[in-house]
């Protein structure tokens, strides 16, 4: 067994910030409860003790302020990594993200930039109810000037977060909170796994990057291409294994900019495409993926592109496991897609 | 012009980052806290212009003195029966919290939030308002529902997301809603209820109604933009609304300094808008009652909004997901000098000869029984467990008044898929 | 010629509010500059004088407050029609719209509702630069619990706005400001037309409804289905006329809930589909339309569905007419689509 | 409990909707406006705690008295040369505004916004700060750029979105950006610059720099949530930042009552946060200078933020899209008793014997010439007209640092389509 330490996703994310704060004293982390306490999910634990209160600090509870202040710090020359405690609470800050961070480079013709990385836990599967479960990535992919990154493993989380922090554009870094502690196969009624057994929990201590804009092939296959990201990567992979379908699974990792080459090559090979995400269906990122695939692979498609997504309802509490696009829904959709 | 090089002849700037006085391991010592004596604060006429009593935003309105006597002009002079009712509602709220906290720990639901130590803030306020005034609470004002007689079983049904849940399992536990009880649907997003309360109050005023609105948020939540929007609208239109800021000194792990408490009080925010601001001992149930009564009269006579800061202390964790020993001194809750609202009102009633330890113990027992009975009742409708107590198609109802085709289709698809999968 | 008065779109919108305020004294209008002055586009002109200051009033400049207050008024029992001065300024209010208005009925199980109609001028073509030109509809179509309506003529604007105000759910009513005063064919360098010559400028004085959720067939045709809304309806229609292509043009009018039947029937008939909108392309509403069409009409499609949209950049000022999806871009895309 | 029927025995509520004193057709009469005498306000030490001088948030700091003398403790005691520079910058700003307003009317660009009557607010502030302090302005502080010597031609190039536009035609006219000049990119969305300024100031403090930040917004914009977030952050971290609220009494057609001016001042907002608040005669260039100098020293010595309300008057329309005669008395601008900042400083200098009418007239002529020359120069690069002065592919640059594939593809497609179309 290798010497590389094992980390869960929280530890990997913590390590990414640690590495970057060590290398670049312009990197600061901030947000509600991120300072002394180290964040409600402990992603920033230990950073204040190590780097001091002016580099890792708690903030007032105003998302407008957190993002607005981070933009100002970025304009000064810092490289802020603000946390929004839950992605459901990004909305109050939307104007600062959309009208300011995402537009600053363009509107000032490069005079000012917003090199900020907004971290936020997102997604469901933790009985968090309507306001601790949402997946708002689709909204941000519609906003020009901001990159959206979603990791699915500890290794990727660290490497992508480092790349995001080093990126000179604003990056929304959404962390699938359901898999902070272990990959989740979608079977809520089976015992939870932790990361230890997963190869991508081998995470180097030091600096490394996973480039933004590149998808990962989780599994090669010939029968169908499945596009997914975040928690869904594991749900899809487990379901595919159970079904024994020869699917090719792409973990998109970055939604904007998207790895269109990987998608196109895969769908042209398999002739079938399925898209899986937790977010509500209508105008979710799956719609864009579907549109792109049919624009580029039209003559290769043997069946309609299928979307398996959250339903177009608010995220319910008690019916969470009916809402969640889990193994049953993926299997049924796949059966249909392969029959078509 | 050189923009990049700091001028060497000027002293460097430094960033102040607030730090609470006590952290884990520290001994909590509040002996230097200046607590104004009970009875000392002036009580202005409710028609007095807001700029005449700024001092009330910086002091602390207190009625119960250290000996348990009700003193001074803010004493609401309630009869003993009313005070016993107040005591009972607070005790019931606490008993409810205890039981539901335990239910969560037993895995019967996903989440719970107590209001321990802060019961006066909701109970006394509810008693001082009319029963049909409208409340826009945060998640820590279960005391309002309890005071207004909303059934405990219904609250528990909601907490369990079970078959009896009036919200059909859609909301996180404790996010109650009861229009009939004048209790607005609780949001997970902080402070959004503030402008909504103002809107309700403005509507009531525009319609020549007599009902007023009140809203609550924590001191940490005052930093949200919604808070400011609400106060701005309220001052502009002189809305008949009461803004309650529950300063329990903690916002999850952040002490009130991160909401601005180092520089001034939260009641002082009111001064910035020309709104009446009162700072009240939030653990003094009579003071909370008096301030609310005053603010309600002010609102009802078209004198506009009042902001009341309730200075209290969050005696327990933020929620069942929180462990306060990780960020504050374990001794803080006990060292907190303003005491416990239930104990203080109890002592007062005993001092008056209107109550005694035996009756109190008996009441506690009875309330514990009441809560237990309600719990049994509620659990007949199921506990959360893995959820799914509602028919699946209810998930698609209520997104809109009528179900549009795409939701109908999704609903049908779900049912069909589950059937095909044999579940 | 009929007795029906001629109205431009502003007059029709004004008339809708007038009619509804007359019929239902719970209807109130509010927003920045909407009271005494009657709105920067004059949509609420005369309403304060007629209905008084408590039913038509100016507000502080806080979009959070405007929507939050409207929600509270709605909970009281009023039927507020708040205006956001430009759709670009909806973002500060996004949390109140998404987390509150759109979720209230669901989360309270019908105990409380938010029967508000948020009016806002949107879209480009007026040299408004980045923050007076945006088309944010795609974001809202992703949000469950809110309806999105976009009229393209005075007649529809009035009838749809009345239906929106009467609707018991929150409605975002986006007004294509480029065509307030006249239909726009996309030729910015030709003289502007006013509405008088357009049949849909015949607008009855009184009450009538155009139901939400129903598309209008602007032109029947066999060669291709073009899906569009707002200003683009006129640009598309003019371009089609110039080209002499036998296109079927659907004006969607309501994006959520969508008139899927009309879309499906048309695409199945023509076998080709093109989608035109001003909003940026990635994750715009065109993506959802494309996904839906390929899911439902896959075996009828003879060529890839084409999207003609705003580019994925902020809305530029001086290059507005290169950015705007005008006749040139529609024509070129159509040529390609019909060749495929 | 009945929630729906108003209680008949209570008086009905009523909604207050503010109304300005004068509407079109009314004669504007400000004779009852209480203007505190010049020189009367106390000038606290810059290290004094903010709660010691609340009165300064309610009064009006004035230096120039009605006779044009500089009086009292706030007199910044500038030498005549500095005052002439101040006068000249204000006059140049006005000349620039005049010319560009006319250019818009001539169809040379799409939009313009004047700062007539408010020139002191930006010019004096810019002079009182260090040249490398960072400004986060709103759209009405062109005076800062002009005072700091940013080239007029560049400003005009921006206004025309022409080939020389440093922003490549991407922004609405007047939405300048110049990092080199310490002038942050202007946003179309109100008040967003407020928290950004705080962030910049916090960063400067965290790095031990000596530079401070300042920001500006109109009184109407103070209602935005960003304003509150900014003040909250600033008080918590004692950020070295100056908040300027330009109370020109109008926000497009809405008078300041819709931002809360009926109940208190805008400077009083500061009190709510425990921040230093000053209310200044914004038409008194020396008072603006003095207040800014005081606030800058306070910030630079780690005493934290200051909010300055500049009480002034928007003498003209909101922008070229606005006609104020539709909503306010035509006589207001002239009736406004606090005069014109340029005329007042001019009279002062003349009173000192340091200036005279001839020199003033000559200066005006010279400045008009300067502006005209600049305009000629700028127009060589083109005027807006139908726009499109930039190579089309520039539209896709600068969205990100590097052009991603989808923008590259869109760019190529556009070029190809235009080529195919023969244009
Ligand atoms: C918009 C938003 N941001 C952040 C949160 C996460 N959050 C929930 S409670 C809380 C602390 C609130 O503290 P306070 O307002 O003092 O209320 P208390 O819990 O003390 O009653 C935070 C940050 C949220 N729910 N909504
Ligand atoms: C977020 C946002 N809402 C609304 C507007 C539209 N708007 C532009 S200027 C203005 C009035 C601002 O008034 P004030 O702050 O007093 O500044 P002044 O124009 O008087 O300098 C409004 C409402 C906007 N630009 N941004
Ligand atoms: Mg608190
Ligand atoms: Mg103004």
Gyration radius over CA of chain B: 23 Å
Could you describe the largest sheet of chain A, including whether it forms a barrel?
5 strands, mixed
Structural class of chain B: alpha/beta
Termini separation of chain A: 45 Å
Number of strands of chain A: 12
Number of helices of chain B: 12
Work out the oligomeric state of the chains in this entry.
heterotetramer
H/E topology pattern of chain B: HHEHHHEHEEEHEHEHHHH
| Largest β-sheet summary of chain B | 5 strands, parallel
Q: What percent strand of chain A? A: 15-25%
Work out the helix count of chain A.
12
Q: What is the radius of gyration of chain A? A: 19 Å
Strand content of chain B: 5-15%
Uncertain stretches of chain A: none
Helix-residue proportion of chain A: 25-40%
> Which distinct ligands sit in these coordinates?
thiamine diphosphate, magnesium ion
Helix percentage of chain B: 25-40%
Overview of the molecule:
The complex is a heterotetramer, with 2 copies of chain A (340 residues) and 2 copies of chain B (423 residues). Chain A is an alpha/beta fold and 340 residues long. In chain A, 35% of the residues lie in helices and 17% in strands. Chain A is built from 12 helices and 12 strands. By secondary structure, chain B is α/β, with parallel strands linked by helices. Chain B has helices at residues 80-105, 119-128, 142-147, 152-160, 193-206, 225-237, 268-273, 285-300, 332-335, 341-351, 357-379, 405-420, and strands at residues 134-136, 213-218, 241-247, 250-251, 254-255, 276-281, 306-311. In chain B, strands 1-2-3-7-6 form a 5-stranded parallel β-sheet, sandwiched between helices. A two-stranded antiparallel sheet of chain B has the order 4-5. Chains in contact: A-B, A-C, A-D, B-C, B-D, C-D. The complex binds thiamine diphosphate (2 copies) and magnesium ion (MG) (2 copies). One thiamine diphosphate sits between chains D (140, 188-190, 217-221, 246, 248, 250-252, 314, 318) and C (32, 61, 63, 85, 89, 92).
């Amino acid at each position: 067994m290798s010497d590389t330490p094992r980390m869960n996703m929280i530890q990997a994310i913590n390590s990414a910030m640690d590495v970057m704060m060590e290398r670049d004293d312009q990197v600061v982390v901030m947000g509600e409860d991120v300072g002394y306490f180290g964040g409600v999910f402990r992603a920033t634990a230990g950073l204040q003790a190590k780097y001091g209160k002016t580099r890792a600090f708690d903030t007032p509870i105003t998302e407008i302020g957190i993002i607005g202040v981070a933009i100002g710090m970025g304009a000064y020359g810092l490289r802020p990594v603000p946390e929004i405690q839950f992605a459901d609470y990004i909305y109050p800050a939307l104007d600062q993200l959309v009208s300011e961070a995402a537009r600053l480079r363009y509107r000032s013709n490069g005079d000012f930039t917003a090199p900020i990385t907004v971290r936020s836990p997102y997604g469901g599967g933790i009985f968090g109810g309507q306001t601790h479960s949402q997946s708002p990535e689709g909204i941000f992919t519609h906003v020009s000037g901001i990159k959206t990154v979603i990791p699915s493993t500890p290794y990727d989380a660290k490497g992508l977060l480092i790349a995001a922090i080093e990126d000179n554009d604003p990056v929304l870094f959404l962390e699938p909170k359901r898999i902070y502690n272990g990959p989740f196969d979608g079977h809520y009624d089976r015992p939870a796994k932790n990361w230890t057994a997963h190869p991508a929990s081998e995470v180097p201590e030091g600096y490394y990057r996973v480039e933004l804009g590149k998808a990962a092939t989780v599994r090669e296959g010939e029968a169908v291409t499945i596009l997914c990201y975040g928690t869904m990567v594991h749900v899809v992979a487990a379901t595919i294994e159970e079904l024994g379908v020869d699917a090719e699974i792409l973990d998109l990792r970055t939604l904007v900019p998207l790895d269109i080459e990987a998608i196109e090559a895969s769908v042209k090979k398999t002739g079938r495409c399925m898209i899986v995400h937790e977010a509500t269906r209508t105008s979710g990122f799956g719609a864009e993926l579907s549109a792109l695939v049919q624009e580029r692979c039209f003559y290769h498609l043997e069946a309609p592109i299928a979307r398996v997504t959250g339903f177009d309802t608010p995220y319910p509490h008690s019916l969470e496991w009916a809402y969640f696009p889990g193994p049953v829904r993926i299997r049924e959709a796949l059966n249909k897609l392969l029959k078509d | 012009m050189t923009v990049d090089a700091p001028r060497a002849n000027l002293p460097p700037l430094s960033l102040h980052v607030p730090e609470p006085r006590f952290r884990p391991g520290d001994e909590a010592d509040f002996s230097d806290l200046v607590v104004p004596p009970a009875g000392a604060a002036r009580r202005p006429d409710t028609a007095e212009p807001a700029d005449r009593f700024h001092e009330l935003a910086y002091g602390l309105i207190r009625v119960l003195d250290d000996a348990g006597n009700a003193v001074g002009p803010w004493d609401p002079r309630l009869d003993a029966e009313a005070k016993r009712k107040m005591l009972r509602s607070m005790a019931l709220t606490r008993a409810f919290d205890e039981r539901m906290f335990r239910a969560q720990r037993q895995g019967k639901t996903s989440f719970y939030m107590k209001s321990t130590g802060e019961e006066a803030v909701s109970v006394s306020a509810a008693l001082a308002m009319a029963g049909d005034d409208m409340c826009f609470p945060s998640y820590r004002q279960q005391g309002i529902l309890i005071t207004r007689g909303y059934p405990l079983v219904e609250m528990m049904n909601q907490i369990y997301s079970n078959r009896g849940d009036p919200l059909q399992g859609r909301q996180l536990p404790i996010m109650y809603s009861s229009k009939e009880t004048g209790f607005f649907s609780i949001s997970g997003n902080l402070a959004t209820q503030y402008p909504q309360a103002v809107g309700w109050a403005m509507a009531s005023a525009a319609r020549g109604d007599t009902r007023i609105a009140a809203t609550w948020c924590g001191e940490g939540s005052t930093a949200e933009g919604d808070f400011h929007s609400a106060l701005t609208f309220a001052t502009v239109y002189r809305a008949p609304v009461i803004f309650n800021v529950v300063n329990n000194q903690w916002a999850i792990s952040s002490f009130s300094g991160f909401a601005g408490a180092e520089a001034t009080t939260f009641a002082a925010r009111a001064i910035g808008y020309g709104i009446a601001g009162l700072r009240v001992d939030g653990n003094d149930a009579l003071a909370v009652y008096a301030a609310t009564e005053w603010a309600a009269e002010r609102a009802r006579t078209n004198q506009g909004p009042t902001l009341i800061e309730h200075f209290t202390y969050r005696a327990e964790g933020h929620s069942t997901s929180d462990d306060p020993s990780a960020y504050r001194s374990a001794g803080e809750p006990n060292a907190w000098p303003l005491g416990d609202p239930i104990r203080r009102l109890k002592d007062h009633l005993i001092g008056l000869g209107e109550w005694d330890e035996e009756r109190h113990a008996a009441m506690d027992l009875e309330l514990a029984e009441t809560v237990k009975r309600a719990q049994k009742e509620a659990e007949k409708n199921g506990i959360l467990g893995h959820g799914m107590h509602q028919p699946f198609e209810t998930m698609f109802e209520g997104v809109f008044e009528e179900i549009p085709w795409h939701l109908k289709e999704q609903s049908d698809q779900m049912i069909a898929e589950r059937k095909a999968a044999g579940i």
